[in-house]
Amino acid sequence: GRFALDYGLVVAPSCPETTVRLRCPCGPVTAFVPWDGHSSGNPVRFQSVPAFAAATDLAIDVPGHGKVVVDIGYGGAFYAFLSAQQLGLDVCSSKTKDLVNAASVVTEAVKKQFKLHHPESEDLAFLYGTILTDGKDAFSEEPTTNICVFADEQVDRSPTGSGVTARIALQYHKGLIQLNQTRTFRSSTAGSFFTGKAVQATKFGDYNAVIVEVSGEAFYTGTATFTVEEEDTLKYGFFFK
């Protein structure tokens, strides 16, 4: 009958939906979990930090591929976006290894050729990865497919929460979707689906931004218990000088 951490406190579930506030590296994120009085259900959803377009139609020289055009969006992390077709690939049918290799080359090229800026924290002003898409950015009832290659050439099994957030922000910025128009995103790796929509326009520093709501299925995969003993001299952490 207990749910999740809310700024360090245990959250008591409430019907029909429980609100869970999470402290993330990018800022506070609010999640909503269905609760019928006995168990949690699906879909779950969260509302993002302000998301924005950092750059659109940016020409980047990519080794082995020549000049490609990318968009850069922020949805809690920065990602470069481009259609896999620009790299001679198909996000739905090409081998995952080929998609990963191409996306990684794009990430490194963008890092060298474009300087990112975050309105509140320069610690967040780095490119987390590249998301290759099927190019279907205009609003449609049909799903659009993408693959997220992030960090050290890791591949997300899902369409990616922060990635969907950033992609929605870019689509809204370009006038391809309107507020509260729901889009469905499919992962090319596992075939899983998220939905996303821009629910509120806002400002974030100098950027015109949106709050994005992302929804999908979630399941329990494990629990963890952390214990602090009073005698532990490092229980409050430490700093390197």
Automatic annotation (TrEMBL):
It is an enzyme of class 4 (lyase). The keyword Lyase applies. InterPro entries: Pro_racemase_fam. Pfam families: Pro_racemase (PF05544). It catalyses: trans-3-hydroxy-L-proline = 1-pyrroline-2-carboxylate + H2O. Keywords: Lyase. Homodimer. Belongs to the proline racemase family. This is trans-L-3-hydroxyproline dehydratase.
